[in-house]
């Protein structure tokens, strides 16, 4: 029981961290795009930039 709870909490924390990283990365990409950063990273053009509100 105890170990299972710990594992679940760790998994939850991991997914939260991933979401935070994803949001941060998207924001940075959007800012890069505004500065014309996509010219340096053509691979970013392939991914549709979805605005996360």
The shape is rod-shaped
Q: What's the number of helices?
A: 2
Task: Note the beta-strand portion.
Answer: under 5%
First-residue to last-residue Cα separation:
38 Å
Strand and helix order? HH
Oligomeric nature of the chains: single chain
User: Uncertain runs with pLDDT below 50, 5 residues or more?
Assistant: none
Count the beta strands. Answer: 0
Major β-sheet, in short?
none
Helix content: 55-70%
Any idea what the radius of gyration is? 16 Å
Estimated structural class: mainly alpha
- The overall pLDDT average reads 73
Whole-number total of structural domains: 1
Can you describe this structure?
With 53 residues, this protein is an all-alpha fold. The protein has one domain. Helices cover 70% and strands 0% of the residues. The chain contains two helices and no strands. The longest helix has 33 residues, at 2-34. It is rod-shaped. The chain starts with a helix and ends in a 7-residue tail after the last helix. The model has no long low-confidence stretch (mean pLDDT 73). Residues 1-20 have a biased composition (Basic and acidic residues). Residues 1-53 are annotated as: Disordered.
């Amino acid at each position: 029981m105890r170990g299972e709870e710990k594992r679940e909490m760790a998994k939850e924390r991991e997914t939260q961290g991933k979401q935070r990283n994803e949001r941060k990365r998207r924001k940075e990409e959007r800012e890069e795009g505004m500065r014309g950063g996509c010219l340096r990273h053509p691979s970013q053009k392939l991914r549709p930039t979805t605005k996360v509100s």
